[in-house]
Structure formats: structure tokens, C-alpha cells
Amino acid sequence: AVPLVVAISTSLSASKGLLIRNRTAFENSRKISVLAFDKTGTLTKGNFAVSRYDALSDEYEKDDILKLAGALESKSEHPLATGIMQKIKELNLDVKEADDFNSISGKGIEGKVGNKNVKVVSPGYLKENNIEIPENEEENQQETVIYVLVDDKAAGVIALADEIRPESHKAISTLKENGIKVIMMTGDNEKVAKAVSDELQLDDYFAGILPDQKLEKVKELQDKGEFVAMTGDGINDAPALATANVGIAVGSGTDVAAETADIILVNSNPQDIASLITFGKATYRKMI
Ligand code: ADP
Ligand code: MG
Q1: Average pLDDT rounded to a whole number, residues 271-275
Q2: Which residues fall in a coiled-coil region (predicted)?
Q3: Of 161, 183, 198, which closes a domain?
């Protein structure tokens, strides 16, 4: 007989969207009661484009903000970094390379540009560290907003916009029809998260959360008796993926995430997860 895993992998790989790393992962897929998606690159396209940027201090010109950010972002692989580097290329700006580059997990990046200590960070980072920004700056629409800090003072702001994947609508409705609660966990800000959640009619969402908080959420849900599947892409997400009952690494993500996961979502397409679950349920119905 053809082993179950092989048979399944062959059927599902008709869509070429899924790599199933173990048999239990497939067997477990029919038990999933909650599916927690990450946002960027899975429910959305992950193609950020700069929609607005500005200096927040008299010491800088508008373009200096992109240059400072670019010095750091040229060393980052985050989708936000790609969007910023694209804008820099379009404007033909000259960008230095930062030294002592580091990432601040779930919050941004930091490094030295000449003699300046520069950070590019989330709004949450500003709040935690009581860093002030001009009033009314926060009243953005549904954009992802990041701040450029020089020596821990706000120097400028960059806003970027992403788009929801067209396939996400169908995927979410299929999952819900199958009795699965669909939620989203994202490090991005509340406004963006709410807009995506409303548009896709998610059951719930958690915004501005850090990687270790994702792990806590997974555990909380499990304590309530839920059987949790989670998607994730970063090194950051590996502990939460390992704890989830079904960990799904998103294809373009890092190898570490892929190694911890039960399933790899090769094309980052949420529709492939919906197919896996409906296929799983149908297969087991036939077997009993
Ligand atoms: P998620 O994948 O859930 O959106 P991340 O952990 O990748 O979350 O990022 C969370 C937040 O940290 C981003 O929304 C952004 O504000 C900030 N951040 C992370 N990496 C970068 C980066 N390279 N440049 C600027 N901001 C970043
Ligand atoms: Mg991420």
C-alpha cells in the first residue's frame, strides 16, 4: 500500500502549495479548532510600498529620514525593509551602510550610521520607552508606521501600505464553514490589524504583540481546550510554532521556522491551508 503521508502529499502537492513534514501533522489537521494566522505575507501580500515619509525634527530633511532608515534596512530581510529600499532606489538616494547592526525582536532594528545611534522601530517601542512624537502624528489611517530615532529621539516617520491577498477571503470563509475559529496575531499596529480583521471578518485578532506573547496566546487557547494551528515566518515565531498543535511555517520564511514546523506553506497562500483541512476531513470520513 502507498503510505498515507505519501498519498496525501501527492494529492495536495497538485496545488504545489504544501509540504507536510510528518504524518501526525496531517492527521491532526482535522482536529484543528482555532487557526491563528500571522498577517504580513500570509493574509496580506507582504509587498509594502512607502506611502508617506517625513522628518519630525528640524535637524533633518525629509530625504535624510529615508537615508538613515536605508542604512539599516539594507541589512534587514523584513518585508518593510524591502519596501523602504525600493523607495530609496526609485529616488536614487545615496545610502551608507550601518555598523553594529542588530535586530530588536518584534520591534525593529538598530545600528550606527557614522557617529549616530539609529533605530527604526514600531509605535509600541516608542510607548514603552516614553519617546515623544509631535501630536497628531499618530492619527494615520490603516498604514504600518515606523519611526526613525537618532540617539533615542524621534527624527522621522515612514508609513507603508500593504494589500490583502485576494485568496484570503475565500480561505477564511472556507475555514469558518468548517467550524474553525480564525484569528490573527501580528506585531503590527492596532489600526492596521483592525482593518484587516474587519475586511476578512476574522473571529478575533491580537495586535502589537511580541514573538513570546504569541507563544503565550497559543498556550492560553490550549488551556481553554482548543486545538491550535498557527502560521509564522520568523526565527521569532519558532517557539510558538513548536508549541502549537499544528505549526505551519510560511514558505518565504527562515529555515529555523521551517525546521520547527509540521507543515510548510510553500506559496504563503492561506487557501492551501483551507484545502488541507477540508481534504483532511474528507479523507478521514472515507476511512471510517
Ligand atoms: P509581524 O510579522 O507579526 O508583523 P514582526 O515581528 O515581523 O511582526 O515586526 C513587528 C513590528 O516591528 C513591525 O510592524 C515593525 O513596526 C517593527 N519592525 C520589525 N522589523 C523591522 C524592520 N526591519 N524595520 C522597521 N521596523 C521593523
Ligand atoms: Mg514577521
Answers
A1: 91
A2: none
A3: 161
Relative to the CA of 121, which ligand 1 atom is closest?
26
| Cβ of 214 below 6 Å from ligand 1 | no
Active site residue 203: no
Q: Which of 13-22, 88-97, 119-128 has the lowest mean pLDDT?
A: 13-22
- 33-77 per-position pLDDT tens digit: 999 999 998 999 999 999 999 999 999 999 999 999 999 999 998
DSSP string covering 58-110 = TT--HHHHHHHHHHHHTT--SHHHHHHHHHHHHTT------EEEEEETTTEEE
Domain boundary among 143, 161, 179: 161
DSSP state of 237: G
Q: Are residues 149 and 168 in the same domain?
A: no
Best mutation site among 146, 230, 252 for ligand 1 pocket (most ligand atoms within 8 Å of CB)? 146
Q: How far is the C-alpha of 78 from the C-alpha of 55, rounded, in Å?
A: 22
- What residue's CA is closest to ligand 1, atom 24? 108
Task: Give the distance (Å) from ligand 2 centre to CA of residue 234.
Answer: 5
Claim: this prediction has a pTM higher than 0.80: yes
- Domain of 179 in residue numbering reads as 4-45+164-287
